[in-house]
Design goal:
Strand order of the largest sheet: 6-7-8-3-9-10-12-11
Strand content: 15-25%
CATH superfamily: P-loop containing nucleotide triphosphate hydrolases
Low-confidence stretches: none
Helix content: 25-40%
Length: about 325
């Protein structure tokens, strides 16, 4: 085993494909990500860049026609890519929990909310305390405590069905369910995308408060650079199945290196900004037949001859402090290409 870069999670060379009638979609092209206990990492990028597929890969929830073809998913020294389904079930929900993008769709439509949270707690405790008789009364107390901590009236909420919840309530229920087992890593896939602005702020503030209390690490998937800047310690920028830049929030916003990261930041409105917002020219490539070399080169204003044929690797940016862990995959900063 290679030395891990993060003591909690280290994703190395992750490749995922989807076999379709139109051809093989090369969704992830050697993703590199790592994080330590208690850190919050934001994964940002355009729609279709591979953010959610990366999250589902960590949970080993890629289903046919998709498959993980190569790569390692180290979690606390165990390679999730090589574990059996039984071993994975002892980790999913307990050590790694996930808040899905559409909370109502992720809940069982024919079970009351309280019963679903209790069932989740019971499953995790059963795997941890094999052979012991489950204390359902204690599980109900945990459920009610968690609903209260996310700002819901448990006496009313526990007897509601998912279709009776508003979007904000459903997301709070998912947060309560995910954090009820006190996971070491929480994956939040666009937790505020379907909510209005005021509810988004409430959910982010709530999530921020709860993960600080529990010291849970968070992998946050979002389109919004502002959300990542507000919530996260580190940011990974993805484009067309690759992580093109990785570093601390301060280093990414203060000194963005990759042309794609610069394009994303130039498209973000800011208070006091008077110039026109700049869009990134071109479109996201078709991942059935992606460009050779660097996948961003057809849209890149700094394109070099090597970009057409050679694939840049994610390397440390020597201009940044080591604590910022700033890495970039671009030939502008790799003189040996």
């Amino acid at each position: 085993m290679e030395q891990q870069r993060g003591d909690l999670l280290d994703i190395s060379g992750l490749r995922v494909v989807f076999n379709t009638y139109a051809g093989q979609v090369k969704a992830l092209n050697g993703v590199e990500l790592w994080m330590n206990h208690g850190e919050r990492l934001g994964v940002v990028g355009e729609t279709g860049c591979g953010k959610s597929v990366t999250a589902l890969s960590v949970m080993r929830l890629i289903e046919e026609p998709g498959e993980i073809t190569s790569g390692a998913l180290w979690f606390e020294g165990r390679n999730l890519a090589q574990l059996s389904e039984n071993d994975l079930n002892s980790i999913r929900g307990k050590d790694i929990a996930m808040i899905f993008q559409e909370p109502v769709a992720a809940l069982n439509p024919v079970m009351k909310v309280g019963a679903q949270i209790v069932e989740n707690i019971e499953c995790q405790r059963r795997s941890a305390d094999a052979g012991q008789i489950p204390d359902k009364r204690a599980f109900s107390e945990i459920m009610r405590d968690m609903l209260g901590r996310v700002g819901l009236d448990w006496q009313r909420t526990e007897n509601l069905y998912p279709h009776e919840l508003s979007g904000g309530m459903a997301q709070r229920v998912m947060i309560a369910m995910a954090l009820s087992s006190k996971p070491k890593l929480l994956i939040a896939d666009e937790p505020t995308s379907a909510l209005d602005v005021t509810i988004q702020a409430q959910i982010l503030n709530l999530l921020n408060k709860l993960v600080r209390e529990t010291q849970t690490a968070v992998l946050l998937i979002t389109h919004a650079m502002g959300v990542a800047a507000q919530f996260c310690d580190f940011i990974a920028v993805m484009y067309a199945g690759n992580v093109v830049e990785y570093g601390s929030v301060q280093s990414i916003f203060r000194n963005p290196l990759h042309p794609y990261t610069k394009g994303l930041l130039n498209a973000v409105p800011k208070i006091g900004r008077t110039d026109e917002l700049q869009s990134i020219p071109g479109i996201v490539p078709d991942l059935i037949d992606p460009p050779s070399g660097c996948r961003f080169h057809p849209r890149c204003p700094y394109r070099k001859p090597d970009c057409d044929t050679l694939e840049p690797t994610l390397r440390a940016a020597k201009t940044e402090p080591a604590a910022d862990r700033h890495h970039v995959a671009c030939f502008l900063y790799q003189n040996d290409a």
